[in-house]
Amino acid sequence: MEKQELVQLILNSGGETLDLQGVDLSGSNLTGANLTGVNLSRANLTDANLTRAILSKAFLLETNLTGTRLVEVNLSGADLSGADLAGAYLQSAQIDEGTVFDDKWRLVWEILNRAGLRCGDLSEVDLSGANLRRAYLMAANLQQANLSGASLREANLEEAFLSRANLSGVDLTGAYLVGAYLARADLRGADLTGAYLQLVQIDEGTMFDDKWRLVWEILNRAGGIGRDLSGVDLSGACLARADLSAANLWRADLTEADLKGATLTEANLSEATLSGADLRGVDLTDAVLVGANLGGSCFGYNTGLSDADKADLKTRGAIFEDEPNSDAPSPTNQ
Strand, coil or helix: what is 50? Predict the structure, then answer.
């Protein structure tokens, strides 16, 4: 039976009477499917969507659940012994005392679904490959934890202790790291697009890719004032409230950078790429924007721009939030 035919059979008739051991259901949309008691041992459910599915008392021994969406799934009484849940999202998944997990994945479930991990001791734990998107880990002790390859997108890591942690290859997009302690942490290959790095503490042993070390310096060591940043890649960086006065950003790539509230007085932004960048509240007094790519960039409430300047920038693709009927996003939604 073809995969799609099997998926339709499961969705239309339920899977209770089916033996699904070892089947390939990778990438399938099984939202809301009733798989109560079904044997899915050693099945391939990579990247499948099982949101709100019923898997109570199901057998998922050694099942491949990498990248599987398990939001609000019912896993009461299910046996997931030996299952691979790397990248699986367990937010709001339902379990009970009869649910069998390997210890690593039970811990991932607890982090995502149980309150009270503020200041929790997670030192030296193995969370490699775990999907901890939007996890609340404020002030958690993650010293020497192995988080390599994990997803911590939009996670709250404010004032978390991450000294000597392995964060190589981690997705930290949009993560809130304000005040986090990263002494001797390994962040090589980590994606820090949109991550908040203000007041982050590092030392000589902290390993960053060059791009994110530069972002850290600009935010925490006044490293942008008067600096030659011509041609550098700062795309996607969170530089909100950064001081880049008199910086040379000629031909710099600031695509989709967050520059809200930054100081860019006397900065040279000629021929810079600012497409999709957020420049609301930025002080642009005497800044040079000649030849800059402004397509889809968001301005508003800026100091240093005359009406003539605004008119020019709008003809080049800039959107002004403080204009009537503006298409720019509201700051309350950011």
Answer: coil
- Let me know: does 266 contact 286? Beta carbons within 8 Å: yes
Q: What is the pLDDT of residues 181-225, one digit of tens each?
A: 999 999 999 999 999 999 999 999 999 999 999 999 999 998 899
User: Angle at CA 221, nearest 5°, toward 184 and 231?
Assistant: 95
CA distance 20 to 40: 5
Distance between CA 251 and CA 255 in Å, rounded?
Answer: 11
pLDDT in tens, 146-189: 999 999 999 999 999 999 999 999 999 999 999 999 999 999 99
Distance separating alpha carbons of residues 315 and 304, to the nearest angstrom: 18
Cβ–Cβ under 8 Å, residues 210 and 230: no
Give the integer Cα–Cα distance in Å for 144 and 182: 10
State the amino acid at position 106 in one-letter form.
Answer: R
pTM for the full predicted model: 0.91
Dihedral angle over CA of 137, 138, 144, 145, nearest 10: 0
Cα–Cα distance for residue pair 186/103, rounded to 1 Å:
25
